[in-house]
User: What shape does this take?
Amino acid sequence: MSAIYRTYRPQLFADIIGQEPIKLTLQNEIIAGGIAHAYMFSGPRAVGKTTTARVFARAINCIKRKPGTAEPCNECDPCRSILDRRTLDVIEIDAASHTGVDNVRENIIGAAKVANAQLVNKVFIIDEVHMLSTSAFNALLKLLEEPPAHVVFIFATTELHKVPATIISRCERFDFKKIPAKEMFARLAFITKCEKKTIEKEVLQDIVRLSQGCQRDAESLLGQVLSLGDAITYKDASAILPRTDHALVLAMADALSVKDSHKGLTLVDQLIENGVDLDVFVGDMIEYLRNIMLYKNNVAGLVDADEVANLKFIELSSVLSMGEILTLISHWMSAQKDAKWFSLPQLPLEVAIVKGCMRE
Ligand SMILES: [Zn+2]
Assistant: This one.
């Protein structure tokens, strides 16, 4: 199994995708020499929080950084020592496994007060910071109130609401976003090219869809697919990718929009024949209907769709009334809930289709 995401982990701000405003602000701070004592990186998993923290840690310690730029050289001694993880001055802690106050005292507070071993800036990267105990947060807060010079804290969390407001208010806060489909696709295509392989476009589109904005997930799926050979077809890839058939989602939405229950039920049969995971399909269908609802409400901006998908959403959102869309969503949500209770797993789906086609 290839560790694509490790091989291609971005080493420069320029290579980090999907977080433009955050990159810009951090780089401006580095260039201006106005970095904060503490940062809070919040957002979904696998979208680049730790990667950004590591690039930042190198950039503020690099001794060969060109004036007016924020990129680390990744070659000087400080950069190398951080990349090779042989410096005592960049400390990564996973709070999920160090939740006691004693660990915070030893690993963070103790270490923050010791003079820097080698680097100009000591950097603590504390992942899943929301996992710390209350007493650990209290100890940390004291440190943030009077931060030692040349110490920078970068906290990362997927659950910002669990971090005390007193901590958040002492940090410069950045909200990381899921990676937009277009940028994720481009990055996967780039990696494929670097690996000197070819891959059918539909495979990459499937990976993007399956990964739902999480870059690490996308790259680990890509790694599995790339291990299949040098020229990978959709058929090859579908043997290992979780099966969803996007074409069937579109066909189902079409059938529902014209109340064609015969067509809808035939599609279920096709799903089973193709070995598609029905749970995944129902989930995809609900997401698709949700997108139609968002288009209907003129908030298409919330939908991450390519041009072709965009046109389809426009079409379906004009054909269906708001009431019809809501009815369909509720039927498919019931199907999702019911699916686990039936020995005939396709039945809840079939009911959702027939009910949907009988709507007024
Ligand atoms: Zn450097």
Q: What stands out?
A: The pocket of zinc ion is lined by residues 62-64, 72-73, 75-76, 78-79 (CB under 6 Å). The chain is about 55% helix and 10% strand. The first strand starts at residue 38 and ends at 42. The domain at 181-238 is CATH 1.10.8 (Helicase, Ruva Protein; domain 3).
